[in-house]
Amino acid sequence: MIRFEPRVESDALWTAASFAMAIAAGLAASAILLASTGADVLQVFSALLQGAVGSPKAVATTLVKATPIILTGLATVIAFRAQLWSIGQEGQVFAGAMGGYLGAQVLAGLPPLLFFPGVLAFGMTAGMALGSLAAVLKNRFGVNEIISTVMLNYLVVYLLSWLLQGGPWGESGGTISYHQSPMLPDEAFLPGMLGSSRLHAGVLLPFLAAAICGLVMSRTPLGYEIRGLGYNPEALRHKGVNINRTVTIIMLASGALGALAGAIELFGVAHRLRADNLIGLGYAGIIVGMIGGLRPLGTVFAGLFFGGLASGAVYMRVLGDVPAALVPAMQGITLFFFLCAGVVARYRVVRVAVQ
């Protein structure tokens, strides 16, 4: 008879095998879904691969698409590893873009070496403000962070809607009011890389942020506190750690990372404030962080995978003739199997002799 038992220690080989099986199962389930629409499965996957990494332009698009969701994924990692179930990444993305836009108005005219760090700092400060508010509500009033961060998401989105629709940041033409801000000046665009106008310098920041997060989580007292808060907050409290202070730091860091995604998206891609460019980036980051096993390196790989899906989606629709809704469906399928793999990796198969 076969029985599953929890593992005392993780097994790297079994964990890798579990996630490899998850990838295979996700591809198989996606293939069945595609076949049910009458599409040529091989052609669709070929188009997806071509759109994701089939050319330098495709690779650049994949990196640009992956940038915000890696950052919001890292925001998820920081919070969820401490069992702070913040769902505020969506609002933080909006806040980061809004803070960055305000910074562009305040810092206009500065040289690029001061302007770009300045506007990104404005954006991150806005995200930290959201994170600190959620931390205060939790520490002082005992408000569950899921509730507070979700409600803050709505507040930020509606604030942006007011600012753009008849508010001070809206663009108007004649008697028509557009739900967007005026275009930023060319000097406010993040500089391109490798001779490409599509590949902006902001794509480097998620990798730098992931390296810093990995270092902090594994080599610093704060990383110990984050992990300890997730495993056993009472034991951490008895060691003399100020839990409220740690919660505040975590929410500030998570908010800053989520907001950095919105600021980079504004200055590197959209170049104007528009809600439709930002919708879903925070929630996608939660998925990416979960698929990445709540680890910075895994989040980077998961973000690149999702960036490739987003980049290849156009090729899938055009060359594969499949509905656009299949892309988020494939993402959901992938998430399901990866979450299953995370559970399977924590158990081992034991053969028990029948008496």
Automatic annotation (TrEMBL):
Subcellular localization(s) per the UniProt record: Cell membrane
Gene Ontology annotations for the cellular component aspect, listed alphabetically: plasma membrane
Pfam families per UniProt: BPD_transp_2 (PF02653)
Keyword GTP-binding (UniProt): no
Alphabetic keyword roster: Cell membrane, Membrane, Sugar transport, Transmembrane, Transmembrane helix, Transport
Transmembrane portions of the chain: 12-38, 58-80, 92-108, 114-137, 146-164, 199-217, 247-271, 277-294, 301-319, 325-345
Name of the protein in its database record: Simple sugar transport system permease protein
Membrane topology: Multi-pass membrane protein
Top-level taxonomy: Bacteria, Pseudomonadati, Pseudomonadota, Alphaproteobacteria, Hyphomicrobiales
One example GO MF annotation: transmembrane transporter activity
Domain of life: Bacteria
Species for this entry: Aminobacter carboxidus
CDD domains the UniProt entry points to: TM_PBP1_transp_TpRbsC_like
